[in-house]
Structures are given as structure tokens and as C-alpha cells.
Amino acid sequence: MTRISTDLGRYQVCDNQKAVWQDPETKTAVCEICYQNLPRQREATDAKATD
Question: N- or C-end of the chain: fewer Cβ atoms within 10 A?
């Protein structure tokens, strides 16, 4: 993920805030709150995969 300064509008999924991070490969954009939650989501997914 890279921080962006271009105004892409609101984040497509949560529609809470302006998108400020974008994955350069997939072009997926997320807001600051969702970006901060990504590590917790990955940990939960990894924990399920190892069970």
C-alpha cells in the first residue's frame, strides 16, 4: 500500500472517509481507518488458517 495525495473520492467499501492508501497492483483504495485495521484482519485470517 502506498499513501496517495490524489483525490479518489470516498473509499468504495466503508464509504466513511476519503481514500488515502492504494495498492499499486490491484488499485484497491482504502481510508485511513480501514488501513489501520488491516493488520488485525490479517492476524484473524492467519489464525483461522492455522487451526
Answer: C
